[in-house]
Amino acid sequence: MVKRKKSTSTGKTWLWAMVTSALLVQVPGVSLAEEADKQDQFSFDEVVITANRVPTTAAKTAANVAVVSREQIEKGPYSNLGDVLRDVNGVIVTTKGFAGAEQTIRLNGDDRVLVMIDGRKISQPQGASGRASINLNSIISLDNIERIEIVKGGASALYGSDAVGGVVNIITRKGAEAKTTMDFSVGSWGTRNYGFSTQGSENGVSWYITANKKEQDYAKYNVLNPALTSGSSKGDSYRWPNSNYEGQGFTMRLDKTIDDNRSVTFNFEHWDDEGGQPYSVSSAYALSSVKSAKLSNNWALTYDFNKQKDVPGFARIYANYSNQDFSGTYKNRTQGFAYQTGWQLGDRHKVVTGLDWEKGEVLENTYHDEYYDIVNYKNKSVTNTAFYLQDIFTVTDKWTVTPGVRYDHHSKFGGQTTPKVNVNYSADSSTDIYFSYNRVFKAPTLDDLYYNMDYYGNTWKGDPNLKPEKGHVLSVGVNKKLNNNTSVTANCFSSKLTDAIEWDYDDSYNAWVRNIAKQKKRGFELDIHHKLSEHYYSEVGYSYVHTENNENNAGYVVEENNSQPNGYRVKVGYTDTKWDVNVNGQSATGLSRNRFIDSSYWVWNLAANYKMTPAASVYLNVYNLGDKAYELTSSGSGNSRGNYPMASRNFQLGIKYSF
User: Fold this and answer.
1) How far apart (Å, rounded) are the C-alpha atoms in residues 230 and 546?
2) Counting beta carbons within 10 angstroms of the beta carbon of residue 363, is it exposed (0 to 12), middle (13 to 18) or buried (19 or more)?
3) What span, in angstroms and rounded, lies between the C-alpha atoms of 589 and 344?
4) Do 545 and 565 meet the contact criterion of CB atoms below 8 Å apart?
5) Three-class SS of residue 534?
6) Could you say which architecture CATH assigns to the domain 3-658?
7) Dihedral of alpha carbons 563, 564, 568, 570, sign
8) Does 273 or 231 have the greater pLDDT score?
9) Of residues 125 and 635, more confidently modeled
10) Helix or strand or coil: residue 485?
């Protein structure tokens, strides 16, 4: 174990801030006339798909929508999907400080979030941590992402279960020009990243293929709670034992154009990794050789039709497979079919309708230690069939009303109807005000229904008679373009959930699952995007989330595990034809001192990209510039706080070459 003492002064933080400022100010200004507005994260004129299932201008969606572009991903300080999403105002990503650690997302303070790739669900039927449906670390690398659309707020009327907090839709890149790109980088702690992508198009067939490999020898963390690490002080840096990591992935998208209105697309994503899994900085397991391995293979075949019409349609079949080995073997599979079509009825009505069918099954759920293999359950499945209908009704030039309804029939609990109504008012050419009401639900996971474990006298039991979690979400917001350089978005929401599913524990650590809880959430978001000059841009964001839980009708109490009651995002950047340099700051305040060591933190990251030639560029990413000790996961109360500190300062230096 390597330890170094860290000064308690703020001198080092100020030094990094001055170095960063110098980079932003001193990079050369080149070719003003060629500069474009690529730095904007949110454009009101941008067309998005996820919020209404059909192409809609962002400002007219009547929803709280954020878009992350390919340019942002390529030029930002991001090493994985969680890094990208964490940089979006109002998004909470929970994780631990070592590579390969599970990452789950919260939107509007809720971890019941639907994650999709090109509009198809990739949720795991057995579930992830908490009420989340997917571990973000089981998803593809960043190289094949065209953009990410994030819809914050209930969306069950269009997407069914899981979309209580919102939807994340990862849209992949389609092959175009003949181009191959090689990407190689090295970094702190023996990090090596290898990337390859190739694309092209010929005779109506296009392809986009990527391959990636990531390696890291170990990780370091900064001590949060000295009581957990003998002989340490807060802020000391330690090497985390058993924190090596290796992962590799492959993605492929093939498109065949039939004619102007029809095409066929095949998608495939593969990812597998293996790494050490420190349970916590205080646990003896952190010194052991416990490993975690994940494998995922997803594919989809989509037929698109009516592509040139106002309401395009598609038919899709897909399958997802996941196998995780971490103190056991956990295999699951999802198979599905989706069909959507619609019509433009006159000048006023745009009707969308569709059918979804999905089967989720757990093939094996086995826990093992050095002595026993315990089969919790296996070969259990559920199916869900759904029909949805939506009408985008243009009442006048200023008013648009979008009612919708979805009916789901689940093989375990029967029918569930979720209506919605969205209203958008265009006050003028630069101002849109919206209101939305959505009924939402979350189906029990297969772990909730069938988990059955008896281990050294302790039992954990699921319940096949669970009801779905049900509730509603209200949202009001405004999109305002102040001028050509400045835009503002604001949103407030309120949600209530009944029959919330909780695992209840007794004093002997026996556990069983029940519909015992109620939840209330409310919050507010404000985003400001301002172009300072031809080359300089800035973004500022604030979010507030307040969550209360009521278990067993004992009364509502504030949730103390909330890692971002007040969230702050700041980004300042410089861009021209040669350089793109940006610094982003992420902060949270109001954390409970019963669950977290500190009530607040600020973390800064730096990304610098330099285009040497049209074919070659170099980049530098520095994470945690100020080398701060902070945490994103609540690991318990008392002396167990601070068990999962985030990584200390580290860097990545790389080169890209295209031909």
Assistant:
1) 36
2) middle
3) 48
4) yes
5) coil
6) Beta Barrel (2.40)
7) positive
8) 273
9) 125
10) coil
Q: Hunting for tokens 């002595």 — which residue is that?
A: 371
Q: Are the beta carbons of 64 and 477 closer than 8 angstroms?
A: yes
pLDDT above 90: residue 146: yes
Distance CA 4, CA 239 (A): 10
Q: Are 136 and 190 in contact (CB under 8 A)?
A: no
Q: What is the pLDDT of residues 19-72, one digit of tens each?
A: 344 344 344 333 333 333 444 444 677 889 999 999 998 888 999 999 999 999
C-alpha closest to that of 280 among 635, 624, 639, 560: 635
Number of H helices and E strands in the chain, helices first, is 5, 38
Q: Outline where DSSP puts E strands in 429-535.
A: 431-442, 452-455, 458-461, 469-483, 486-505, 511-531
Q: CA–CA separation, 295 vs 273, rounded Å?
A: 7
- Quickly tell me which residue has 């990527």 as its tokens: 210
Which residue from 466, 528, 392 is spatially nearest to 89, judged by alpha carbons?
Answer: 528
Does residue 3 contact residue 237 with C-beta atoms inside 8 Å? Answer: yes
Q: What whole-number distance in Å separates Cα of residue 443 and Cα of residue 132?
A: 11
449 token code pair: 């229904």
In the block, residue with structure tokens 């009505």 = 349
Strands (E), 1-135: 3-4, 47-48, 56-57, 64-69, 92-94, 104-106, 113-117, 120-121
Residue with tokens 């494998």: 295
Q: What's the CA gap between 406 and 408, in Å, rounded?
A: 7
- Locate 298 and state its tokens: 């997803």
CA-to-CA distance for 643 and 224, rounded, in angstroms? 8
For the chain, the 3-state helix, strand and coil shares in percent, each to the nearest 5, are: 10, 55, 35
Token readout for 428 is 């003028």
Residue 282: per-residue pLDDT = 82
Chain centroid to CA 165: 12
Closest by CA to 513, choosing from 130, 157, 178, is 130
Query: Quick one: tokens of 266?
Result: 């095949």
d(Cα 387, Cα 417) in Å, to the nearest integer? 10
Rg of the Cα trace of the chain? Answer: 24
Q: Is the distance from CB of 473 to CB of 440 less than 8 angstroms?
A: yes
